[in-house]
Amino acid sequence: MTSGLWELVLKGVWTTVQLLVFSALLAAAVSFVVGIARTHRLWIVRFVAGFYTEVFRGTSALVMIFWVFFVLPVAFGWQLVPMWAGTLALGMTYGAYGSEIVRGALNAVDPAQKEGGIALSFTPWQRMRLVVLPQAVPEMIPSFCNLLIELLKGTALVSLMGMGDLTFSANLVRLALQQSAEIYTYVLLIYFAIAFVLTRLMRSLEKRLKAGIGKDAGTESAARELKRAQTTGVGGRVA
User: Where do the coiled-coil regions begin and end (predicted)?
Assistant: First the structure.
């Protein structure tokens, strides 16, 4: 490829990274707000959060992108630029999936920990902030890592509305050179490289968070293996 075509691809990579960061930040905010709301003591709060989750989790991300980009201007009279339309659609959609990760991790915290917060006269928010979240967040990281990779791959959907992301740029190069195999192989490798970096960063974050609350990944793995052996009689060795 010529330098000009490589520049076009690199601009597409930068657009994809920007879209990934913005939509991931929105998805994370939505995940925690909705996920915490789904454990709220008031049924109406749980109902609204659950309704949001079911709607956005049960609809197509591609159709949501088209709806935000093409329907919102007609319905409300204002137009989002492609970057913010993609960010809003992807962030809200993947945030619905993330809210279930948050809800599950919060419910997995030992009830005795919450009871200890009550005994210390903590308010519900203090119990959530000081007791529950520090223990739940490290357990969310592996699932959030998978969701982040899915979000990265989902960013390719914005190319269908003409946004100059990596997939859109690669298609322009393919049309210019008529070399589909070479171009799309490069694109696959670029997506893989970004996903690999994200995975390593999330694993590093998981280790740091678990170390902050006195947990070690190796020790936890050995404990799970020992418990499985005691329960099933299969596998595991006691040193």
Answer: none
Q: Which residues of the chain have pLDDT under 70?
A: 1, 214-239
pTM of the predicted protein model:
0.84
Is residue 74 a contact partner of residue 7, using CB atoms and an 8 Å limit? Answer: no
> Residues for the chain: how many in total?
239
- CA–CA separation, 129 vs 135, rounded Å? 10
Max intra-chain CA distance, the chain: 70
Provide the 3-class DSSP secondary structure of residue 109.
coil
Q: What's the rounded Cα separation, in Å, for the pair 212 and 116? A: 20
Describe the chain by its helix, strand, coil percentages, rounded to 5: 85, 0, 15
Distances (CA, A) of 188 to 4, 39, 108, 175, 236: 20, 40, 37, 17, 39
The confidence score (pLDDT) of residue 140 equals: 93
As a dihedral over the C-alpha atoms of residue 160, residue 161, residue 164, residue 170, rounded to 10 degrees, the angle is: 20
Q: Going by C-beta distance under 8 Å and a sequence separation of 6 or more, which residues neighbour residue 185?
A: none
d(CA 122, CA 77): 46
Cα–Cα–Cα angle for 17, 200, 184, nearest 5°? 50
Contact predicate 94/23, CB 8 Å: yes
Q: Which residues of 120-146 are buried (b: 16+ CB within 10 A; e: fewer)?
A: eebeeeebbeebbbebbbbbbbebbbe
